[in-house]
Amino acid sequence: MIKKSFFILLLLGTIIFISPCNADEGDLSLGGSFGGVGLTGSGMGQYGSNGFGYGGYITYAPSNMFDLDINLVYSPHSNGANSANLFYGTIGLKTGFKFDQLSPFLTAGVGIYRNSIQLGGVSDSAAAFGFNVGGGMDIDLGKWFRMGLLVRFHPVFSKSISSGANGVDDLWDVLLRVGILFRTGTQGGWD
Q1: 160 near 41, Cβ under 8 Å?
Q2: Quick one: residue 112, left, alpha or beta (phi over 0 = left, psi -120 to 50 = alpha)?
Q3: Please, what sign has the CA dihedral across residues 18, 19, 25, 27?
Q4: Which one-letter DSSP state was computed for residue 51?
Q5: What is the 3-state secondary structure of 90-113?
Q6: Cβ contact 68:93 at 8 Å
Q7: Looking at the chain, which terminus has fewer C-beta neighbours within 10 angstroms, N or C?
Q8: Rounded Cα gap, residues 129 and 13, in angstroms
Q9: CATH number of 2-182
């Protein structure tokens, strides 16, 4: 019991006395992302499980406490004659700590997911809402460039389509992000 209480007090003290600062207020970053996207649901295996996704992102820091992160990703999947083309957009908040040019973070948000499928010669599509949770790290590469890694899990709601097959299922993504950083504030590394 004492060890558990000590750990809880240590964690609370760390959170209270070390204020999170993920970005400099007013910073804007935009760029491209690419990496693995996996379909995790049992019904999606007929379309192929893992695919290569690519897209873009915009990140804005309205305060020092969090970033607003908007992502669009397209990911084709295939398994023989069956295919799934997944397109999704997410909006979420990132919060973390900044250590010079390294910024580890946690993220959570909501998204809309659209999947166009071809199964046994029949085409169909579905759209669903969901949310995402994950984390990653951004690295400032000089004054104007940022690179990062984003890892998320996406639980998706309302998964079936009119034909009764799974239209959109839970998924994960691991995306490498490369972008341009526009510093509108006066703080930050590499100044």
Answers
A1: no
A2: beta
A3: positive
A4: E
A5: EEEEEEECCECCEEEEEEEEEEEE
A6: yes
A7: N
A8: 37
A9: 2.40.160.20
CA distance 42 to 163: 17
- For the chain, the structural domain boundaries read 2-182
Contacts of residue 101, defined as CB under 8 A and 6 or more positions apart, other chains included, come to 139, 140, 141, 189, 190
Give the highest mean pLDDT range of 14-28, 134-148, 158-172: 134-148
Judge contact between 37 and 173, C-beta under 8 A.
Answer: yes
**pLDDT tens by residue, 31-49:** 999 999 987 766 666 666 6
For 25, the 3-state DSSP assignment is: coil
End-to-end CA distance of the chain: 48
How far, in Å, CA of 28 to CA of 21, rounded? 15
Model confidence over 156-176: pLDDT tens digits? 887 665 555 556 778 899 999
CA distance 119 to 41: 16
Distances (CA, A) of 44 to 155, 161, 170: 14, 13, 9
